[in-house]
Amino acid sequence: MGTKLENTENGFIAPSRLHANLQRVLVDLVNLHLVGKQAHWNIVGTNFRDLHLNLDELVAVARDGADVLAERMRALHATPDARVAVVANQTSLPTFTAGETTTADAIKLIVRSIEAAVGTMRKVHDDVDEDDPTTADLLHEFIAKLEQQAWFIGAEIREPSPR
Q1: Taking 80 as the threshold, does the pLDDT of residue 114 lie above it?
Q2: Residue 44 pairs with which residues in a beta bridge?
Q3: CB-based contact 99:36 (threshold 8 Å)
Q4: Secondary structure of 52-112 in the HEC alphabet?
């Protein structure tokens, strides 16, 4: 689904495959933002404050990424869809637990969610790159930022590797 092109809207138009792949990434970024806030509000336990603050950083990365991607979709004459039902139906992220969650459990769930979002980006990357290398550059940026967040958050419960 797209908009009727106006005289001022000339240039590259996203093929349907590109639109579909970007939509997959968008719903994961929107859901990652929501999962991050769910954890932020409901974690308890050791290192609460550090994780609470780090989750806000993750939320900012996911929220900003979703906005950049949705605006890129619009620039390519594709219509982003991040309605609640669509995000719930299309996301590849695991379901986050309801209620209070220990910081250790939340870390495991959040890292899995980040890895799922990055996994979607890596799955669609080659097709996106073939359809539009400029948009693939955005995916590179999102992947780098999210993998850094997974490292920051996951390090809270890691043990050093044996030497």
Answers
A1: yes
A2: 102
A3: no
A4: HHHHHHHHHHHHHHHHHHHHHHHHCCCCCCCCHHHHHHHCCCCCCCCCCEEHHHHHHHHHH
Burial of 99 from C-beta contacts in 10 A (0-12 / 13-18 / 19+): exposed
136's enclosing H/E stretch is helix 133-154
Q: What residues contact residue 105 under an 8 Å CB cut-off, 6+ apart?
A: 97
Q: Taking the CA of residue 138 as centre, how many other CA atoms within 13 Å lie in the half-sphere pointing to its CB?
A: 21
Judged by DSSP in three states, 43 sits in strand
φ, ψ at 7 (rounded to 5°): -60, -30
Compute the Cα dihedral for 98, 99, 105, 110 and give only its sign.
positive
pLDDT tens, residue by residue, 124-141: 999 999 999 999 999 999
Q: Is the pLDDT confidence value at 81 over 90? A: yes
Q: Single out the residue of 98, 107, 132 nearest to residue 22, CA to CA.
A: 132
Assign 9 a pLDDT band (cuts: 50, 70, 90).
low
Rounded CA separation 15/5 (Å): 14
